[in-house]
Amino acid sequence: VFHLPRVSRKEAKPQTCQLSESLDTSSSESEAESEPEQVSGYNRLLATLKDVSKEDEEEEEEEEDSVIDETEMNLEDGDSDISVEEETAVASTDMQKNAALPADPKGKDGHGPPGTSEESPEEFTDAKHESLFSLETNFLEEEREGNCSLKALQDPFAQHVNKELKEKEIQAVATNPKTTHQLKWPILGQLVFSSRFQQLKPETFKPPKDIDLKSLHLQKPLESTWIKTNSQFLSGPPNSSRPFTPLQKELFLIMNSYRDLFYPERTGHVLKANTQVRTNNSRCRSQKLGVGDDDDFRDQGLTRPKVLIVVPFREAALRVVQLFISLLEGDSKKKIIVGNKKRFNGEYGSDPEERPPNLKRPEDYEAVFVGNIDDQFRTGVAILQRSIRLYAPFYSSDILIASPLGLRTIIGGEGEKKRDFDFLSSIELLIIDQADIYLMQNWEHVLHLMNHMDLLPLDSHGVDFSRVRMWSLNNWSKYYRQTLLSGALQDAQINSVFIKYCVHGQGQVAVRNVPMTGCISHVLVQLPRVFQRMEAENLASVIDARFNFFVNKILPQYRDAVMSHTLIYVPSYLDFVRLRNYFKKEELNFTHICECAQKSGVSRARHFFLQGEKQFLLLTERFHFYKRYTIKGIRNLIFYELPTYPHFYSEVCNMLQATTRGEEAAWTCTVLYSKYDAQRLAAVVGVERAAQMLQSKKNVHLFITGER
């Protein structure tokens, strides 16, 4: 899919950088035809500095070899049902597909399954505007060249990229204890500051008071367009002294400090970087490439892409691009040039008439599944002065917008001949939005992406090494990359990514508010709710401990025919496959519904369960996430594990009232949990009650009818 653009072949003085042995490493994954001898990524980069004449002769051949065949990389497009006879291990293979998708391309809801549309073969080819968006051939206007004095030095961006970490600081990261400090801000609430680089001084990091837009070092034209663009969120009349909402003000202060941020309550970088490059282009031209300290011109990474925005659906990507256009255009009568805009709107937009008018779903569902919900996409965006180029080749892009699945098909896996992840080598700002949705898609794609961030590239891609920042050459980019991670909930897997992969030198900030009441207060039906605690020796043994506890302690109570109409809610797909195989082996009277089931199979399963022809119904959380069908006929409810989304607990409990035939007195609800489910338990029952349940010696906790 990648088309490597032609780049300026200007002669540059090679730079030699002495690296320690511990840092002179390359990616653990290499192409199958590479030499047996291991060569460091940095040495491979230096080896690409050939004679100009030789490069010119081989330019066409390199461009042809760099194109990735889309059809060979599309290994994860399809999806299919898994037979009951398959072992649990097969489910792990299914994780390489988009297992969160229903098989019916156009179901009752009017939504096609994400990830079914194929990318255009011309996705990364637009040679017509190549020279217009090339940074090497663009210069800043002469009258603006000298505007870098004290104001520029005070810019947080300049302080961020110009700060040089010492090698001893990098080496000490692995052994330094993490220092943490908690603060409470008026809007964000409980914040946890942490870092392994320096002793934190949280007293200097206080909630913002009044902010004047002129003091924020915004790059033109943002300083003039932000107020209008953001006016829809402001309660009062917009002005430069009140440019943000109270929440935006606190979030911006953290983001502008270039700290990593985890914001689990989700309900200007490129312009500055490109301006710095064009300013130095002008300085080099005026000094005829031979005057001044070479380090003054180090303003780039090893590859051009600086920002990666990960979003779950095409609709979200469309909104991001529309926001870019709005911020760059503002009130100006002169419209900015947007290349390939019509094509982008056609491929990322949606037809409102495709959605059934009588479709009724909860508000959170309506907010997530709006517009085009295809989840296999990727596109490059190049921004220069008053022009935006969509579908720019990745190595000519400033911003990459993609889904985890779209990136996974390009990054590939170990042993695949045609794969590419060099474009991730110099990402300075990583935005992972709506991270909770990736738990419902395929979290392995997120982990695969994070494992390939900020690795030394395997090819030079025409880089001018005299312009590359030293911390990029030293393979320290991950300590300068700011990560903004947002989602709708606290989850152990999301927390793990933030702790493991976010290591910015300025530290990390995480919002850690705890729910006081829990979603149990939203349960409307009158039924006893029994929470049964199971014991596990460690986190690794929880999966087996839960299965054994269920088949030995819980299931025997429901085998009797009297306990019919029992729905078993299973959050994990792997647990679902394991239970399905066990029920098949024991010849239990059951049916099942998962996200991979065809529409006809879902209808049959719902009918058999409602009529009592099947005693048990296994239901996956992903199916509930993508469809939100009301399952009728439930009399007994078992949560095999606490739901990922806490409000799913109340939604499923309230399904019991869908069919009332006078058996309300016999309704039951059982929930399994362990001490490792503290976050999910607190979200359901409230933090105080969860603490009591986890500290209590009792393993069974009964919530009486109607208790909140």
Q: Would you give the CATH topology of the largest domain? A: Rossmann fold
Strand coverage percent = 5-15%
Helix content, binned percent? 25-40%
SSE-based structural type: alpha/beta
Shape type: globular
Distance between the termini: 55 Å
Give the name of the CATH architecture of the largest domain: 3-Layer(aba) Sandwich
CATH superfamily of the largest domain: P-loop containing nucleotide triphosphate hydrolases
CATH class of the largest domain: Alpha Beta
Radius of gyration: 28 Å
Strand adjacency order, main sheet: 1-2-11-3-10-9-4-8-6-7-5
Number of domains: 2
Q: Please, how many helices?
A: 25
Average pLDDT figure: 76
Number of strands: 18
Q: Unreliable segments (pLDDT under 50, ≥5 consecutive)?
A: 1-42, 48-125, 141-150
Subcellular location: Nucleus, Nucleolus
Protein name: U3 small nucleolar RNA-associated protein 25 homolog
Domain UTP25 C-terminal: 520-703
Biased composition (Acidic residues): 54-88
Give an overview of the whole structure.
The strands form two sheets. The chain has an eleven-stranded mixed sheet. Strands 14-15-13-16-17-12-18 form a seven-stranded mixed sheet, with helices on both faces. Strand 16 (636-639), helix 23 (647-653) and strand 17 (668-673) form a beta-alpha-beta unit. The protein has two domains: 161-511, Rossmann fold (3-Layer(aba) Sandwich); 517-704, P-loop containing nucleotide triphosphate hydrolases (Rossmann fold). It has 25 helices and 18 strands. It has 708 residues and is α/β, with parallel strands linked by helices. Helix content is 31%, strand content 12%.
